[in-house]
Design goal:
Chain lengths: 260, 276
Amino acid sequence: MIKNIVMMSLPIDDIAEMERWYYRDHSSEIARRYGPWLQRHESYVALNAPADAREYGFYDWRVTETYWREVPEPGPKGAYCFTPAPVWNPIVACAVPAQPTEDFFGWDGFATDRACIRWYQIFRYPLGVRLEEGEDWYLNVHVPEVMKQPGLRRFFSHKAVKPPVPLPGMWHPDATPPDELMMVQWDRVSELWYDSFSAWRNAVIDDPPAYTPPEWATDPFYPHTIDRFPFFKPGVDLVSTFLLERPSDEFLRDTRYYLP
Amino acid sequence: MVKIRELTAEEKAKPYSKYYYRPVDDPDPELMGLVGADRAMDPAQALYPEDIDRLLDPGYMEVETGWCNLPNGAGYICVNNKMPGVTVDMLDWWFAWHSLAGMHYGIWYPPGHFDITISEKDRARVLDPAVPIKEKIYGRTDHVVEDVGTGPEDIFIFFCHPAELGFDMDRFHPPNVAAVYGGYGLDMPQNAEPWQIRAPAIMCHFIREIPGGVEFRTRFWMGYTLIDRKPVMMLPYGVKVPAVAIQGLAEHNVREYTNLRNVLPEIYAELGGRIP
């Protein structure tokens, strides 16, 4: 089963119009047209993260996850075009296996323990880094060190599905989200959970474990890199947001269909 | 008049800088005719990257030089550049030596090859005399700045061992093949925003010895990448590689290898096949 992830950012001035469009038009169109193939269609509103937590390519509006039992064929296939958004906003899209491909840490807790905030990261290895080399560093060097963060509650990851999964539906040729607002080439989605933003700050900023930098962090051959945790340049190779445990919207049950 | 990058004083002081300033040879007219903008080949005659092993078969394919869009939107290029007077030893040396400096790469084709860099780790490997010359390319990543027909681009080329490209190593020997220089890459317009789309491609230069020299059978699959030794088509639904980009790369390939075939025997003899 495929989980498609769309992480979105939005200028605050556009939120009223965009929330109306998202509820009334876009989520309804997805649910109505593709409900037979969808198992879940859920959205999480991004938390109002403090300034230091926004330094990691922060996306401030929503994360929507669609779980596809089967992905319908791409193209119009009998549907109208999607109703265009009133404004186009920055979007990150990625498809992953519905279940994490690696569960690193914290599975032996109980869901009834303390609630968590989820640091939801989408990243790719920097330009010039081979996928297998990036994966070797991340899985065998970095992850064991991240697991030493004080207060880390949960840590798991999904390897991105490649080739990209073609989703159904069409935007109108004259009303297509502009390429410059979409980032689609990703390698992984990882989640790190903490008790609170204070716990996150302590684990990530105030009392982090020692990290071994990857080759790309120290060799100027690799452009657009940084030499400190998380070793992915925010906004270029890493975007992230903070979510609660439970979705704010479950569109397959919440949407009232009124479209043809 | 095509402008070329002006060399630094240090580069000019190298005795072989003369090759950089030598007039570029006219491209092979027969091949240029076959890769013209109005000469897209029939995609049914294209080789797909999943079938790359067919290059090891004796003889030639139905189309050895041409370009087209494949039905899945990918771009396909094939070019057969004959290189009289060129040997496999020269090519093995060239594919190691040219990675060491921007001017080396520029000598290949001054109007379109602007710069090259490799990582410290890869440089050490190229310079390590214990690494056989044929293996200096395997696993190396080159960052080249090159105009392949649509303006200067930053291109990262991940060179691979032929087995990673999909060749049956039991059949990988003369006369089927003499060498393969290939891998996969990502390119983006120079000075593009770093988050912009990186266009993938698989590249294969398949070398056979022929009387008096070698033939360079090149294949490009634009829109594909290599993951776990398998070609993967990465274009989103409905996206086609623009024909101008495919044809431009085909034409550039003819130009750059026409020039290389003419300069390589001389510079190889002058530098004695040594690295650096």
